[in-house]
Amino acid sequence: MRRPLLAALAAVLLLPGTTAVAAPRPEPVHQVDPLIGTAGDGNTYPGATAPFGMLAWSPTSTRGDQTSTGAANGYQYGVTRLRGFSLTHVNGAGCNPGAAGDVPIMPLTTAVTSSPSADSTDALYASDFGHAAESATPGRYRLALANGVSTDFAATERTTTGTFGFPADRPATLLFRTSNSLNGSADAQTHLDAAHRRVTGSVLTGAFCGRRANGGVNNRKSYYRLHFVAEFDQPVTGTGTWRDGALQPGGTDQTGGEGYATGRDRAGRGSGGYVSFAPGSRVTMRLAISYVSLEGAERNLRAEAHGSVDQVAAATERAWSTELGRVRISSPSTVFYTALYHSLQQPNLVSDVDGQYPGMDQKPHRVEPGQHAQYGNFSGWDQYRAQIQLLALLEPVVAGDFAQSLFNYAKQNDGVWDRWVHVNGATHVMTGDPSAATLATFYAMGVRGFDYRGAFDSLYRQATVPRPEGLLDAGCPGQCVGQRPNLAQYLASHYSANDACHCWGGAAETLEDSVADSALAKWAAALGYRDKAAELAARGGYWRNVVNPATGFAQARNLDGSWVTPFDPASDRGFAQGSSAAYTWMVPQDVTGLAEALGGKDKAITRLDEFFHDAQGNWLLRGGGPLRYDPTNEPDIHAPWMYNELGAPRKTQDTVRQILDTVYTTGPSGLPGNDDLGTMSAWYVFAALGIYPRTPGSAELLVAAPLFGSALIRPDHAAPIHITAAGTGRYVAGLSRNGVPVHDWKLPGDFLRGGGVLRFALSPSP
């Protein structure tokens, strides 16, 4: 529950002879509710984190199974029992468990009399809590547990500072579940130093989406070691360690991982340690993490962990105020600013204050000259459609560092750009080549803080030179190791053959690669590589080879050219996390061409109408089944904007506003589905501003009616953009750019790069 803002809620007192003065509009940071998206499938987390932070202090819940939280990121609003507060989280990942959740720390008010790992149902060393005792704001998280302990923590980029308030009549203990990352661990090390009031340790882990069947054993692997150091301001009165089922009271050192299995195959395994304090202690803990070394964690602690909890919280709130203040809207909106908050939680720092970071080759590296920081956590298949455009618009310096980070990882990975980078690990999740689409978009939007020629050359090589792992089925479906699977066949057939592609759905792979190649073509043209631009532009049209004229839908094909049958547009056969009906619209780079393939613009408009409505013409925007629009996943999130290019912009305006008004709301269930590292939130931010990225590799914008009367966008190191909307309604009656009338459904790329003023005139009727 968010704390009420006194400035926003206090009534205005009127004295004789005075006039009423409106209460000031709350600052953007005070309109954020981190609990939005924590119920249902939003998979957000409510804990304390800084913008793009490495560390996030947030609860790890339990449903009675120590090997599973029952939530993708450790927290589900409806689960009110927890077994600790973890140090790392990923926003909105779509599998259970998702990733990270490293080193849960549990405050206890009972004696530790048995191994916590043996408590496989979390019956002894966990606690209930109630949401009335919970407070989440940007950078700070507070929770009072049913066991009597109060917690209050704030985060910087790499550290957290907070207090545990223990009751006076019971034991006071902190349990460090060092091996208990969400997906398990290969190894863990814990060292307790009572004399110096310190706990240090590390966990060797990884295994993104480790419980998923697709990927299986291939995905249960280690690729990072997280180091931590914790210091306390109160004397440590006792210590102990455990490994698996054995408890060592008084112990100070322990090692041992849990493995990456689940359920019975993992229950009872693991290691950690505990420290005790005098009953009634109010313990302040300062903790830092590093992916490089314990020494790196020490340096991070000395550089960032300064001041009281209030002071740390205030500093991080100011950092969030800067980020959220890059977009100022004319009326308060918790939904908008929470969406912006979720959009800017990633990418996440992986480099220490001295610039060192772990490479994808598992070796330590240092950031490149001119690079400010190394970032990880790239949910490419999701983010390239909206989140990376918002990042490029608001934080082009961070976007440039992120682009360089991905290039650094590729160079350390034998030139391979992985689709889904978790911390510094290649997880291979999803399909296509989202790195190509992402970096091409960054360049088009004016981002220059990376080696863009070197990055282009590397991505072009990945798109044109087959590699041996492209012929493997390891990890398929879902996490196929080939990043351009069976590229030789793709280049020969001009589509990805469903029976020979070694991929997650031949039709999906073809559509994704067509988008990526179209984006690379635009980038090549901008760099002056005319031959490569022509080659890649032609490949950007390969989508045509998987749209069946006989069915009017995208459909997978076999190596011999035949269509995969039996065919059902509601089926996901040949696709990834979506049906044929949804994927058919995934041609943002050539909407006109797609309309021609579907029988002309009029027929395409009719098809889109049926996509968003039931047979009676009523809106069907959630739960309509595989033949209808799905706002919870990415393949069709561009579809509402496609009416613009089909000659029916009023229908884009109508559909977008209907989604804004009904699909995104306040409260824990306020997100339609997985936030997917800010992607769904970024969709909302753009739509509420009345603009949306037209296609990857471009800075062009599609337009609809803004939700607010005024919005001022002030990017970092870029020109401001002012959007105003006169009148009311969801339809655009007129539009001007810098005073010049606009008679089109899109804005050229130079608008985002150069800034200016957009003036909308709105109407309640088309």
Briefly say what this structure is.
With 766 residues, the protein is an alpha+beta fold. Helices cover 25% and strands 22% of the residues. Residues 241-266 are annotated as: Disordered.
**Mean pLDDT rating:** 94
User: Percent helix among the residues?
Assistant: 10-25%
| Count of helical stretches | 19
Radius of gyration: 26 Å
Per the principal axes of the C-alpha atoms, what is the gross shape? globular
Give a count of the beta strands, DSSP E runs of length 2 or more.
Answer: 35
Keywords: Signal
Domain Glycosyl hydrolase family: 296-763
Domain Glycosyl hydrolase family 92 N-terminal: 32-290
InterPro entries: 6-hairpin_glycosidase_sf, GH-type_carb-bd, GH92_a_mannosidase_put, GH92_N, Glyco_hydro_92, PNGase
Q: What distinguishing features does this structure have?
A:
disordered N terminus; six-stranded mixed β-sheet; 19 helices; alpha+beta; twelve-stranded antiparallel β-sheet; 766 residues
SSE order and pairing:
Blueprint: H1 6-9, E1 48-49, E2 56-61, E3 81-86, E4 105-108, E5 127-137, E6 140-145, E7 150-155, E8 159-165, E9 172-176, E10 187-193, E11 198-206, H2 216-219, E12 222-232, E13 238-243, E14 246-249, E15 253-255, E16 271-277, E17 282-290, H3 294-304, H4 309-324, E18 327-329, H5 334-343, E19 348-349, E20 356-358, E21 364-366, E22 375-376, E23 378-379, H6 380-383, H7 387-394, H8 396-412, E24 420-422, E25 425-426, H9 434-444, H10 452-464, H11 487-493, H12 506-527, H13 530-539, E26 547-548, E27 553-554, H14 580-583, H15 591-597, H16 601-612, H17 649-662, H18 679-689, E28 691-693, E29 701-703, E30 710-713, E31 721-726, E32 731-737, E33 740-741, E34 746-747, H19 749-754, E35 756-763
Parallel strand pairs: 31-35
Antiparallel strand pairs: 1-2, 2-3, 3-5, 4-9, 5-6, 6-7, 7-8, 8-17, 9-16, 10-11, 10-15, 11-12, 12-17, 13-14, 13-16, 18-30, 19-22, 20-21, 23-24, 24-25, 26-27, 28-29, 29-34, 30-31, 32-33, 32-35
